[in-house]
Amino acid sequence: MRSPRTLEVWRLGTVNYLKSLKIQDKLVSERKSHQIPDTLLSLEHPPTYTLGKRRTDHNLLIPQSQLTKIGAELHYTQRGGDITFHGPHQAILYPIISLRSIGFGARNYVETLERSMIEFASMYGVRARAGNKCETGVWVGDRKIGAIGVRISCGITCHGLAFNIDPDLNYFEHIVPCGIADKEVTSLRRETDALLPKEEVIHKQLITCFAKAFSYDDVVWKEDPSFILDTKDDG
Amino acid sequence: MALRLLWASRVASHLRISVAQRGFASAVLKDLKYADSHEWVKIEGNKATFGITDHAQDHLGDVVYVELPDVGLSVSQGKSFGAVESVKATSDINSPVSGTVVEVNKELSESPGLVNSSPYEQGWIVKVELSDAGEAEKLMDSDKYSKFCEEEDAKH
Questions:
Q1: Which residue of A has its CA nearest to B61?
Q2: What is the pLDDT of residues B51-104, one digit of tens each?
Q3: Is A158 a known active-site residue?
Q4: Which residue, A73, A204, A225, B125, has most beta carbons within 10 Å?
Q5: Cβ separation of A103 and B153 shorter than 8 Å?
Q6: Cα separation of B47 and A209, whole Å?
Q7: Which residues in chain B have Cβ-Cβ distances shorter than 8 Å to A109?
Q8: Which residues form the BPL/LPL catalytic domain (chain A) (predicted)?
């Protein structure tokens, strides 16, 4: 008989990318030493382009010097995956969870992240699917609606997924998104005629789909985001 | 599964070692040692060759990139020294032994998929000169590792 699994959820609003990396580093370290249970960060970023470990910056189509002009930052990270864009009205989940305690490897983990997003999309009548081989992510037809890029260190995850609710899709024109040249990016707004509720509600729905896909018994909603936003080594 | 056992038997007879017969899941080779982070190591005198196990590659998915350490790097048992990428996930690889890197498998830069298709042979990752041969005692033998994998897989 397995012991009940708890997920702690922090809803953080808009968080600068570098700050979110610092928060994740701290949480990964705390999770490794069993100081905290599995934890989920739910947030958005200001306009930010990010690259994965393979540093595929040839997929950024404008000079880096132009980025400030369009109001965006660029960051190199240790996650898997290619270049992507994060911005307002894109729901991001960063799970800091122990894969060893559920016997998951990278493949199962990523497939379950995909299932979370597919289940969420279906709440709005959107028929999404997992990507084909080499096209990890969530698609509606040939249009990408959800992206994944994760890092696993000693069996603890960080980075995660990004689901397009209604971001400014023009920002994606400046990159070859995820290194896939001939496919469009889309959003929930574009794919459904359903009335979208307030984004807080949408984020909560996505979180609930995640918790269900990963079979958590309890979800603890942490009420005071300043507890982890006010990190002492604020940069 | 029959194909996997056939493959494992062929590898085993080539390497002149015996295969632990398991009814299901991944191949585990006797005469190798294993870490609980799913790396295998073959120790020959004061040199060791290691990589990731069949269980590991199966759970990772198709490997598209292997981050290799530099020759001359010091590695420590249980500490990360590199990473593999698969399905948009980078997974750290931990060194099962301590020592100094003397050779890396450059083939993996062109053909990272060797880690999947041949995890114990052509998909080897690093060769080190051991700094502490006694550390191998802390690793699992093939039977213990097989059980360990079964227990992990039973968790979900």
A1: A107
A2: 999 999 999 999 999 999 999 999 999 999 999 999 999 999 999 999 999 999
A3: no
A4: B125
A5: yes
A6: 49
A7: 89
A8: 34-218
Only one residue has tokens 């404008």, namely A62
Nearest Cα of chain B lies from the Cα of A223 at a distance, in angstroms, of 30
Write down the number of H helices and E strands in chain B.
5, 9
Mutate to test the interface with A, among B60, B62, B64, B88 (most CBs of A within 10 A): B88
- Please answer whether residues A188 and A199 qualify as being in contact, where contact means their C-beta atoms are separated by less than 8 angstroms: no
CA distance A1 to B127: 42
- Residue A156, token pair as written in the block: 């603890």
* Distance separating alpha carbons of residues B85 and B124, to the nearest angstrom: 16
Beta carbons of A177 and A85 less than 8 angstroms apart? yes
Give the per-residue pLDDT at A20: 97
Both tokens assigned to B40: 């295998």
Type and span of the H or E element at A104: none
ipTM of the complex: 0.89
Chains A and B form CB pairs within 8 A to the count of: 90
The pLDDT value given to residue B10: 64
Over residues A65-88, the pLDDT tens digits come to 899 899 999 999 999 999 999 999
A123-181 per-position pLDDT tens digit:
999 999 999 888 899 999 999 999 999 999 999 999 999 999 999 999 999 998 877 77
Contact B38, B45 (CB under 8 A): no
Residue of A nearest to B84 (CA): A80
3-state secondary structure of A26: helix
Token pair listed for A154: 């000693």
Rounded Cα–Cα distance for residues A117 and A113 (Å): 7
Decide if B68 touches A, using CB distance below 8 A: no
